[in-house]
Design a protein that fits this description.
InterPro entries: Rieske_2Fe-2S (IPR017941), Rieske_2Fe-2S_sf (IPR036922), Rieske_Fe-S_prot_C (IPR005805). The chain is about 0% helix and about 40% strand. It has no helices and 13 strands. It binds FE2/S2 (inorganic) cluster (FES).
Amino acid sequence: MAIGGLACAGAIAVPAASFIAAPAAGSAGAAGGRERWVRVGRLADLPPGEPRRLKVIGEERDAFTVAKDQMLGAIWVIREGEKIRAMSATCPHLGCGIELNDDKKSFNCPCHASRFGLSGAPETGPSPRAMDPLATRVVDGWLEVDFRRYRDGVAELQEIAG
Ligand code: FES
């Protein structure tokens, strides 16, 4: 079963561990704004050094309603030893989905051919910045990301609400 399909499952197979220190849930995050921790998959299902695309499924809120189990977006995750690197799969240029190249050594956006290294750094194309980084933590063997969305087409990270 794909990791993304496990986003809402309940089995726990790996002891709790924290890879990246993060403030308590609900407080202002390192990136500013409100944290939004979303469980995306089991740590044990992440092969070292191999990028994996995961769905982000969680609550979508507006001023009046809360909708559960909504598709919020997608991320690329790479396990590098004891660290987990997570980046939005949404292109910072104009918002298309970023794909992994066949050689698995870089990412590509099919819309206007922006190319990124595995670190998320831009290599070629019109993207004004690197792939958007997301904080991660591991809780009871589950990988969680502080999921945020950022404005397209600008060089600086500008978070957009929701
Ligand atoms: S939307 Fe990705 S390069 Fe334009």
